[in-house]
Fold this sequence. Notes:
The complex is a heterodimer. Chain A is 83% helix and 0% strand.
Amino acid sequence: MKEPVRWNRYYALVLLLLALYIALLRGLSCMFPREVAPAVNKTETR
Amino acid sequence: MSSADWIVLLATLGIIIIYGARQSRKQHSLNQFLLGNQNTSWWKVGFTVMATQASAITFISTTGQGYSDGMRFVQFYFGLPLAMIVICASFIPRFYQLKVFTAYEYLEQRFDLKTRSFAAAIFLLQRGLAAGITLYAPSIILSSVFHWDLQWTHVFSGLAVIAYTVSGGAQAVTRTQLGQLLVILLGMVFIFFHMLEALPQGYGVSAAARIASWTGKMDAVQFELNAADRYNFWAGIGGGFFLALAYFGTDQSQVQRYLGARSVAESRWGLILNGILKIPMQAFILFCGVLLFAVFQFEKTPVHFNEKLLTALRQSHPAQYALWQQRNDSLHLALESIRNTSDQEGLRHQLTTLNQERTRLKSEVISFVKSSMPDQEANDRDYIFLHYITNYLPRGLVGLMIAVILCAAMSSISAELNALSGTTTVDIVRRSLPSLYAKLPELGWSRLMTAFWGVVAICFAFYAQLFENLIQFINIVGSLFYGTVLGIFLCAFYLKRTTGRSVFPAAVAAQLTTLMLFWLTDLGFLWYNAISCSMVMVLALSLEWLLPRKADRIEHS
């Protein structure tokens, strides 16, 4: 009976880690924001 | 390559192949050959799942992607941890409960033989094609950079993989993959520090990120909803989840990795490890590409990174080539002042102008190649990282990096061959052709089938050169078939009312519709998964409702 409960906790931990990764990567985007006109990147990405 | 590079390359590959081949002494049964005797520990499951996915072309393309498009590709992996949770909770317990060798065996126990055979046949067709491309992709790059003969490169690398997969089975795959992943990660860490050294004096990780941010390459997460934008948070969570669920949950090359674990718990831990490590690993490889972008801001770069293409251009269109070279030389005249400037605003302005000019020149070259040399691959994204490896790394490290590329290719292809062999032996020969199956010992069949699929992959690789864009081709092939198989499995797990009589025709109809969509419309291939998966589920439910219930009871009894 205990096992499903424990696994659910681990799954929740994975979700928390995912949220942490997204927050960290978003933080990285904010730390180094784009500073030039978007047109430059647009041509670059093609 | 120097002799030091050759020694490092041959020693690294030699150790891995010999180690894999030594596992053959321990193979006595089908269970051992296909599932490694189901004694793989959780961390090995996690790492082999990662190594199976990390093929050479992904590994080289990811750095190229980071170089040209920045960090935002990382969002594509946001759905992966969610898919791992669903697989751990729903897929793994069901597979273990019925003690299956392959994922498709489960379908016979839940539905019927024809549904199982259909799913297995779809997998064999799709993965057999993919194995040829996986084998061909690193060969085309290696032969281009080192001027090796293309055909011999993929024949020899194919034979080496067949040798240790045939003799060693799943244990050889698991154990060699661990070594290969270690070599890959060590190689990437080495090259990361080497690139930091290659930056001008006084520049570090933060300065490189700042330079990359000027062209938006550090925009890792974007929440704006934009249907035209392939990589944003929503596409990553939604599309990425779907793709990861189909790949890790129904593709035998991955299912076989975690069915080889000691227990349900160890399988789950392995997949959780994959879910936890995948995003940081991809972010690191992408950042290596971003760092490479920063390094090349201060270096003279060629007009096109594919050296073989440049040689062809020089020979076929010497006047045009000379003109481009001249323009490229004049572009880089200001490099010395860029390197030594301390004025950040001035540097930003100079680099922005330089980048715009480089981009314009490359677009011209690519347009020219597309129009006048249509048989050549015009895009150079996959060659950027290789350009750095061959031109900037010291002796010995070049050999190590080539070993990394080959290791990534070999780890993927060996897992694919092992899965193809398992599915053919268990789902087709043993189940549907028992009299033929009895003529050889069961281990003999698995080995024979591994060799057979290896040869098929080598043959497919000969035809791969007919396709212009390998990454796109491999993704289209996957998307054409994944949705149907995922739909069948989702019916099995979540739609209790559905039976073989409704799921099989629904799956056939969905597969035919997907193929028709591919041939008759311009619909983006990423939509195929969602369409065919939903179609299988809706059609199966409708048929179940429409067909008489009496037949249902007979089938269940």
